[in-house]
TrEMBL record:
Residues covered by the Transposase IS4-like domain: 175-261
Signal peptide: none
InterPro entries per the UniProt record, alphabetical: IS1634_transpos, Transposase_11
Official protein name in the record: Transposase
Cross-referenced NCBIfam families: transpos_IS1634
A molecular function (GO) term: transposase activity
Organism: Oligella ureolytica
Domain of life: Bacteria
GO terms, biological process: DNA transposition
């Protein structure tokens, strides 16, 4: 059911509650008519309340024919704000569980990962997405607080899960790994121990930046990452990175693939 405004020849407006069944519209109730906009809006509110009050009266005890009719009536009465998007959860959620990320004891991690895959925009837009499509009400500050927990508490677990999944995908043996770095700059001037102005490949020499180092297996399956200060020299990050994660994951001596800026003579020897 829905609310319809019908203009009359007299200039007044009738407010009706209308249903649609088998392509045929039917007036369920005429709420009233008015000429002034405030009164029209009041009648529309009354009509919406009637529709809302009628919803709990829907019964699901019916035979096959009645089931089709009832289902049609229910679908016809739905509004956009009553629709939940379940596709991302059905697809990405199943992959999330299969990899093993459901071991992370915080439901917000699941929401943020799936939202990032389905709707990869800002944190503020992520809050809007979760409220609109998942019914999850969050403040942006809650996401920032969770990111602190992720870095302080959950990062080792997340990396361990990712590594175990990559290992399974590689037949339980990781013989080739790929390492690369990228710079992430900040539109600000203040520096700290991590955010520092340094060499920028994109010409942002006056902006502080950080370096992100990423280690992946064959076919791009992730293994681990680390963050380095913006003034770091890329070539000096490779060996400490590999040593740290080789000990942690018992990688052995895999073939390392990287660009020429990282594979200096000192690193190769």
């Amino acid at each position: 059911m829905f609310v319809r405004e019908k203009k009359n020849k007299s200039g007044s407006v009738s407010i009706q509650i209308v249903s649609k069944e088998n392509g045929i519209y039917k007036v369920v109730k005429s709420v009233g008519c008015a000429t002034e906009r405030p009164e029209i809006e009041r009648l529309k509110d009354e009509a919406r309340q009637f529709i809302e009050d009628a919803k709990p009266q829907l019964s699901f005890a019916f035979d096959a024919y009645e089931e089709d009719q009832q289902a049609l009536a229910i679908v016809s009465s739905l509004q956009n704000n009553q629709v939940q998007v379940i596709g991302p959860e059905l697809i990405f959620g199943r992959i999330y569980d299969a990899i093993g990320f459901n071991q992370v004891p915080d439901e917000l991690f699941r929401h943020l990962v799936i939202a990032r895959l389905a709707y990869p925009l800002s944190k503020l837009k992520t809050v809007d997405y979760l409220l609109k499509y998942r019914g999850v009400k969050l403040e942006v500050s809650a996401i920032y607080r969770f990111l602190d927990r992720l870095a302080d508490q959950y990062q080792p677990l997340v990396e361990q899960i990712a590594f175990e999944h990559t290992k399974r995908m590689q037949g339980d043996q990781i013989s080739v790994i790929f390492y690369d770095m990228t710079a992430l700059h900040f539109e600000a001037e203040d520096e700290d121990d991590l955010r520092q102005a340094g060499f920028s490949k994109v010409g942002k020499h006056r902006h502080p930046q950080i370096y992100l180092g990423l280690l992946v297996g064959a076919n791009g399956f992730p293994i681990a990452y680390d963050i380095f200060a913006g003034k770091s020299y890329e070539g000096h990050t490779l060996i400490p990175f590999l040593e740290r994660f080789s000990q942690r994951f018992n990688l052995g001596k895999p073939v390392v693939v990287a660009d020429s800026g990282l594979l200096t003579k000192r690193n190769i020897v």
